[in-house]
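okkk here we go again. third time trying to get the adenosine-5'-triphosphate bound version out, last two times i messed up the smiles copy paste (missing a bracket lol). double checked this time i swear
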Amino acid sequence: MIEVLQLTKHHRNTTAVDDVTFAVRPGRVTGFLGPNGAGKSSTLRMILGLDSPSSGTALIDGMRYRELRHPLRTVGALLDDAGPVPERRAIDHLRWIAQSNRLPGRRVAEVLEVVGLAHATRRRVRKYSLGMRQRLGIAAALLGDPEILILDEPVNGLDPEGIRWIRTFLRDYAAAGRTVLLSSHLMTETADTVDDVVVIDRGRIVTQGPLVEVTAGHRSLEEAFFALTADRRGSER
Ligand SMILES: Nc1ncnc2c1ncn2[C@@H]1O[C@H](COP(=O)(O)OP(=O)(O)OP(=O)(O)O)[C@@H](O)[C@H]1O
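finally!!
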């Protein structure tokens, strides 16, 4: 369970995240959705202890990330900007993470199998396609066999096959009773993957709840988003 409570983040003159509160429940895939610059990455970085909030808290199983006794066994993360060294072989990248976090070495082969990269473990990461890199990032997130997965824009730049693979993978992960939070600015591509949505725009939560409830009365999630933000956009013209 992830709980975000009145989280706010100021960067100099910008308020990236403004009094954001939501919960992410186990057994469901939750989409954290909003346009570019809405505040998604800033929120995820605070949940993962990479940035400090200006105010408010983010809790994972009731604790701040930095208080977790076994962080990688509790929560696995794929962030937009954290990539492996391109010259490194995929298997060495994962071995290094496993060793430095005292995770069993056998997990490396296991996660490479799970993400469908068992055939390319000795290839250098620079020779990987974007889809393969995303899979490798997910493999790294899975090393600690965590109950919670947090993925920042996992379908960005993927082809339909890659999007389909991630969709199936995340749905199965949640179906096993685990917690999945993924961010995306692609509402249409993400709508088929998620059970719950938290929609953010310019730092503030616009709506949240089960997808079926949020989209009720609208033709799509995207339409619901534009209808819900029309007032704010209109008042700024
Ligand atoms: N370190 C920083 N310093 C200054 N401003 C920042 C910083 N990080 C984020 N911002 C600003 O905060 C706002 C929210 O950015 P954030 O990256 O969280 O949005 P996002 O929803 O993840 O968007 P994207 O999908 O484009 O990454 C933006 O206006 C961004 O320019």
